[in-house]
Write a structure and sequence with these properties.
alpha/beta
């Protein structure tokens, strides 16, 4: 049986890190921002972005400049897909009630257009009268015309069960009609068949009942119920087969924005998950751009991109070492955008966990230079906004012959000191290098980036870390690839005393970015998939798929409001509903217990 596991990273590495420092990444200058229309303004003084400063320049005070505090809002755009009897109609009603989106169903549109005698309706009527399917071009034009109306522009849209084919999806793409989210209600066939076969129609009231889940209120109604022609088991199976073929063709177009939801639960449970997704998405689309904060730009489209709308999907060939500069830049920007969103939302205790091969100290291809570049990209971007950033690396722990630091961090402080921090004097003015501890917290610091803080055997960094965060008070502290699990020495130090408090403190940091590759149990090749979370969105589980052309892609399997367990990951890879649990055994059970 195929199992996927998280690449382990719970011991200090004994590998010799290789240095890989590249030229500095381009900073994201706020002078090039093109903000979307503003719904309201408030003006006040904030730090000025400085250029062309020499490294020896001393600035006791930061100059002031005018900044704008604005809110932007975009309506939601959602597509929902589901097999017959998946509960799609019910969820559409609940979504419209909660979020006020305009519900668009092609069946309703066709009937409305035909009844109104419009040009599109007349064309569609000719095909319908002849007993033929209405061509994709007519349906797509009809959908596009509806989406162009003012109520849709104001309220957003919910496209129900469309597109149904690859051709329809491609037509919408050509028109640049693309959703923010593609929801798929995933229900096992046996449940779908049971739901369909048990349905009954009241010919008098036109109401749909179900013998098991929604029985009629009276015996009188029960006696007049009839079975719809399409609700026989054979016809249901045929409809499911057609749906699966169409859904598989469409899914490739929206793979990067697809969220599969287990539709076998009650309508309340299913909607709760949908509501969480849409609320998070709405939170990303309705954003207060606070002074001193800077949205990332999509330079090709010239618009702000703090949401996942422009996310390009997971890059491929991640086992090719060294990683290309494009792949490294991709992850640096992905981490930066998630961190910016979290800080804009007022989060102050954050952690970043990114475990690509060059940032995984358990692999012999680990590169300390890649970690330093990630830290530099974060620090320079916040410094570009006028923030004073302190980059901190823990010092030696222990005493006497036991003094030392984790090998992963050996030489890190020196590397940071000698790195190229740009040509406008950021280091020393807006970026400073320090250690971890309360003594490192200065009044002028705006935020702190801590490089891979970790416990060593028999020594604990958490006391220094807690003292530092207490001194920092409301200022953001960001942990990059922290390892805060206890590592007991042979004498039992760190084994029991205060362990609960240490773990509680470590858990107080909220994850703003998580990326980890999945492998076969006990191996680090080949890559089977990945887990990604970018604040404030859900955890996304992807499967790596080899294509006939020799290329590869990552296809989303499921989303989770929390970091998925190993059992949940396995269930998703094996196509099992997430509500079914199993008990791992053998070596897989052993690894499950550890992780």
């Amino acid at each position: 049986m195929l199992h996927s596991t998280l690449s382990p990273s719970f011991h200090s590495t004994t590998l010799s890190p290789s240095l890989s420092l590249l030229s500095p990444l381009p900073s994201f200058s706020s002078s090039h921002h093109q903000f979307p229309p503003l719904s309201h303004f408030s003006f006040y003084s904030q730090p000025l972005h400085l250029y062309n400063l020499h490294a020896n320049t001393h600035l006791p005070l930061r100059p002031k400049a005018l900044k704008v505090n604005c809110s932007t809002s975009e309506p939601l755009k959602v597509m929902i897909s589901g097999a017959p009897a998946s509960g799609k109609g019910t969820q559409c009603e609940l979504i419209v009630q909660k979020f006020g989106l305009v519900h668009i169903s092609t069946g309703d549109l066709l009937r409305a257009e035909v009844a109104a005698g419009t040009e599109i309706g007349s064309k569609a009527k000719e095909f319908m009268n002849a007993g033929r399917l209405v061509p994709d071009e007519i349906v797509t034009d009809m959908v596009a015309a509806r989406l162009a109306r003012e109520d849709v522009k104001q309220r957003g849209w919910l496209l129900d069960g469309y597109p149904r084919s690859l051709g329809q999806a491609e037509s919408l793409e050509k028109m640049q009609i693309r959703p923010d989210l593609y929801i798929v209600l995933d229900v096992p066939d046996e449940i779908l068949i049971d739901r369909c076969v048990g349905r009954r129609l009241d010919p008098v009231e036109g109401k749909i009942y179900h013998l098991k889940f929604f029985p009629p209120e009276t015996e009188e109604i029960k006696e007049r119920l009839i079975t719809r022609p399409d609700d026989t088991e054979d016809k249901v199976k045929s409809r499911l087969q057609i749906y699966k073929q169409n859904a598989e063709a469409v899914s490739s177009t929206y793979s990067s924005i697809t969220n599969k939801i287990d539709g076998s639960h009650s309508k309340e449970v299913v909607f709760k998950e949908i509501e969480t997704l849409l609320s998070q998405l709405q939170k990303g689309k309705v954003k207060i751009i606070k002074s001193g904060e800077k949205p990332m730009l999509d330079t090709k489209k010239g618009k702000t991109s703090l949401s996942q709308d422009q996310w390009r999907g997971i890059p491929t060939r991640l086992n090719n070492i060294p990683h290309s500069r494009e792949i490294r830049k991709y992850f640096y920007e992905d981490v930066l955008q998630a961190t910016q969103r979290a800080i804009i939302d007022g989060k102050t205790r954050l952690k970043v966990d990114i475990n690509i091969p060059e940032l995984n100290p358990e692999m012999d291809v680990y590169r300390i230079g890649t970690l330093m570049e990630l830290v530099r990209a974060l620090a320079l971007s916040f410094a570009d906004d006028g923030k004073r950033v302190k980059v901190c690396v823990q010092g030696s722990m222990g005493e006497g012959a036991l003094a030392g630091m984790p090998l992963q961090l050996a030489g890190t402080r020196k590397i940071l000191e000698f790195m190229d921090w740009g040509d406008y004097g950021a280091k020393g003015n807006f970026i400073n290098i320090g250690s971890i501890g309360a003594a490192e917290v200065d009044e002028q610091d705006d935020m702190y980036i801590l490089v891979a803080p970790q416990n060593a055997v028999g020594n604990c960094i958490i006391d220094d870390l807690r003292a530092m965060t207490n001194a920092a008070e409301h200022r953001p502290v960001i942990l990059i690839n922290a390892k805060l699990k206890d590592l007991p020495a042979s004498s039992g130090i760190m084994q029991t005393m205060g362990r609960d408090e240490r773990l509680k403190y470590a858990a107080s940091f909220e994850s703003c970015y998580f990326f980890r590759l999945l492998y076969y149990a006990g191996t680090q090749y080949p890559i089977m998939g990945a887990i990604r979370m970018s604040y404030p969105y859900c955890y996304e589980l992807y499967k790596r798929v080899d294509e006939p052309s020799g290329k590869e892609k990552y296809v989303i399997l499921s989303t989770f409001p929390h970091r998925p367990s190993i059992d949940e990951t396995n269930d998703a890879f094996e196509g099992k509903p997430s509500n079914k649990t199993k008990k791992a055994s053998g070596i897989w059970g052993f690894l499950s217990g550890i992780l």
